[in-house]
Design brief:
This protein has a 3-stranded antiparallel beta sheet, with no helix packed on it. The mean pLDDT is 95. The protein is of the alpha+beta class. Helix content is 30%, strand content 25%. It comes from Arenimonas maotaiensis. GO terms for molecular function: structural constituent of ribosome.
Length: 60
């Protein structure tokens, strides 16, 4: 049984965004611009991605 994963890339810098969103980016494990993480596809991760839709891109 293979677990579904989702690749997330940080495509925009964090200057000028809310502190809550900076913490959410850190929770996803993204540090620098163009960082990519492969995360387990869960409702909590999807919620973070939806909150940060203007900062991150989901890749297949």
């Amino acid at each position: 049984m293979s677990e579904k994963t989702v690749k997330v890339r940080l495509v925009k810098g964090l200057r000028g965004c809310q502190q809550r969103h900076r913490l959410s980016v850190k929770a996803l494990g993204l540090n620098k611009l163009n960082d990519v993480r492969e995360l387990k596809d869960s409702p909590s991760v999807r919620g973070l991605i939806n909150q940060l839709h203007y900062l991150v891109r989901v890749e297949s």
